[in-house]
Amino acid sequence: CAQKKNSLGMELVKIPAGTFYMGNQGIGENFDEAPAHVVTLSSPFLMGATEVTNAQYEVFDPAHKALRGKYGLSKEDDEAVVFVDYHEAVAFCKWLSKKEGKTYRLPTEAEWEYACKAHSYSKFSMNDALPQNYQKKQYTVWGIDTTVNLKVGTTPPNAFGLYDMHGNVEEWCSDWYG
What we know:
By secondary structure, the protein is of the alpha+beta class. It contains three helices and five strands.
């Protein structure tokens, strides 16, 4: 995997062009992702190896630091930033584009799913079952356990060198899979 770092210390991984099956057979909770269909991404693109961290986001929006630890989530510099809406994520990308002199944007749903699957035909990039160490479910926050660790890069990377594509935090895309 070709990697480089930007001025915020974000590792960027080159994702190759390619073809994959997007979506699934629409079974269970993912009924709205059917039918699976072939998608071709004709150009390579760069993607962050991990989610944006608190420390990286707060260079853009220092006031966000007040949200650290809300509901017991994302307290440390190296944890995935949370409590950022779509418009704030887009504004971060525009700010970073201006700062770096290069275009930063949210991935499309197709780019994200392709990067996540990393040439895998299974439900997850590693197989059809999600191993326990990937299962950091956000909804546990609303129950009893509010000590979810959202440190980035703690699970093994997929075949493209991307971390936390399964089970850390939800991630914004520039479009909607529908």
